[in-house]
Amino acid sequence: MQLNELSPPAGSKRKRKRLGRGAGSGWGKTSGRGHKGSNSRSGGGVRPGFEGGQMPLQRRLPKRGFTNIFKKRIAIVNVADLNRFDADSVVDEIALVKSGLVKGRRDGIKVLGNGELDRSLTVRVDAVSQKAKEKIEKNGGTVEVA
Q: How many CB atoms within 10 Å of residue 122?
């Protein structure tokens, strides 16, 4: 088989419908839009969610709660996760992103005390729990809160 012998399967390619090309084409004059009315005109039709004047579903359902637009998105890292770094290394935002522990949009990084740490590290993050700080310092590491 050669590249020039390739062809698409029968019936998979269809010619584009060319509207407004004379009465003989079958799609002339009104071009399949019928006579008058909103949908016959350019820019016509109804907006998304419009149900023909019936009370829309979005307005029929009860509304609850609210979304705090000032909410902070804090990335969480556990002490056990810090074991992947070499001993006596500096663990900061750049190192955490590079290692894949922190992803996406965030307003800060917080280290929590879940798990055990078996090496000495210098940790530079936005927040640290009391338990995490104790575990890091127990191994001879230091915590720097920015």
A: 15
Burial class (CB in 10 A: 0-12, 13-18, 19+), 121: buried
pTM over 0.85? The answer is no
Residue-wise pLDDT tens digits, 108-122: 999 999 999 999 999
State the DSSP string of 97-109.
HHHTSS-S--SEE
Phi, psi of 85 (to 5 degrees): -85, 150
User: What pLDDT is attached to residue 43?
Assistant: 94
CATH of the domain at 130: 3.100.10.10
Number of domains comprising the chain: 1
Q: Report which DSSP code applies to 13.
A: -
Q: Which residues pair with 123 in a beta bridge?
A: 91, 143
Quick: pLDDT tens for 3-49: 999 999 999 999 999 999 999 999 999 999 999 999 999 999 999 99
CB distance 15 to 27 below 8 Å: no
Q: Quick one: which H or E segment has residue 129?
A: none
Within a domain: residue 13? no
Domain that holds residue 93: 74-145
